[in-house]
Design a protein that fits this description.
The chain is built from 9 helices and 15 strands. The chain is of the alpha/beta class. It folds into 2 domains: about 110 residues, NAD(P)-binding Rossmann-like Domain (Rossmann fold), CATH 3.40.50.720; about 160 residues, Dihydrodipicolinate Reductase, domain 2, CATH 3.30.360. The strands form 2 sheets. The chain has a 9-stranded mixed sheet. A 6-stranded parallel sheet has the order 3-2-1-4-5-6, sandwiched between helices. The longest helix has 20 residues.
């Protein structure tokens, strides 16, 4: 089987994970690592048997590289992803995809022009429990989806960062809600604030409203000492509760409480394997650049709502 030649831009915690998984997958060959810090680039490249670079444009001259993961700081994501797209490479760009909606729109247009895959790192969608909830919603085995809520809280120390909790963390749950409801919200209302982190918001409560009175609630912060990652989908006939950390799924209806069993899997591995297979088979990715753009637009609407104290109505 021919392997897809891949590279990773950015060697932070998540970039190292991308490199590790690409090295482990049968579908991919890790060719290069790029980071502005030459020591970090070399260290990660040596660890996984790749060639180090400090300049992405120079790295992209290597014709063996067919696809790139972009795992830089949020404000540099669109810039580095654009370089790869314009070089004709397929791109998986980590969330939030870009620093702002305008950057995301330009990146999406360039990917469409070049005819390359552009997918965004919303790996929650690859957790088997969430896929089960999505199927239950589609098949109406829990009745009509009325409401969904996501809680993503944990302690996060003061650090050098370039976005707040909404674009860094809550955006995962924004994408999940769009995925479950399979429609765009008509309104966003949010409250955000900064309790310990000086530059950006470190807590947020976001409400999304959909047609017909359906709604979604998202709570996210960098303050809570106990790490919690849960999703609750409330249907007219049953409730489904997913713990993202343990991947345990609970289904409750009028008669019984069920806990379906399925193998625990690493979502990042499933995500990158899907990315490689889409390139090989020329299939549309499960998560598109448009999905990333929509989630980022809602994240910015949440910040606007908090700043103005008003509901932001969406077209």
């Amino acid at each position: 089987m021919k392997k897809i030649g891949v590279a990773v831009i950015g060697t932070g915690f998540w970039g190292k994970n991308h490199a590790r998984v690409y090295k482990e997958l049968a579908e991919t060959e890790l060719i290069a690592i790029c980071d502005i810090d030459p020591q970090r680039a070399k260290a990660v490249a040596d660890q996984f048997g790749a060639k180090p670079y400090t300049n992405a444009a120079k790295m992209l001259k290597n014709k063996d590289i067919e696809a790139v993961s972009v795992c830089t700081w949020s404000t540099a994501l669109a810039k580095e992803a654009t370089k790869a797209v314009q070089a004709g490479r397929h791109v998986l760009v980590e969330k939030p995809m870009a620093a702002n909606v305008k950057q995301a729109e330009n990146l999406l247009k360039k990917a469409e022009k070049e005819g390359v895959h552009l997918t965004v790192g919303f790996l929650m969608r690859f957790i088997p429990g969430l896929q089960n909830i999505k199927k239950a919603v589609q098949d109406k085995t829990i009745g009509e989806l009325v409401c969904a809520s996501g809680k993503r809280v944990s302690q996060w120390p003061e650090r050098i960062g370039d976005v707040g909790v909404v674009k860094d963390t809550a955006i995962h749950d924004i994408d999940v809600m769009l995925h479950l409801f399979n429609e765009d919200p008509i309104g966003v209302y949010a409250k955000t604030g900064s309790m310990r982190h000086i530059r950006y918001e470190d807590y947020a409560q976001i409400m999304l409203t959909f047609k017909g009175g359906k709604s979604a609630f998202i709570e996210s912060n960098w303050l809570t000492p106990y790490k919690t990652r849960i999703l609750i989908a409330t249907g007219s006939e049953a409730i489904m509760n997913l713990d993202y950390i343990t991947q345990e799924l609970t289904v409750e209806n009028a008669k019984e409480t069920l806990k379906p069993r399925y193998p625990m899997q690493e979502p990042l591995k499933l995500e990158l394997q899907h990315f490689a297979n889409c390139i090989m088979k020329k299939d549309k990715p499960l998560i598109t650049g448009l999905d990333g753009l929509k989630a980022l637009r809602i994240a910015e609407s949440a910040l606007k709502s908090s700043a103005t104290g008003r509901i932001v109505k969406l077209e």
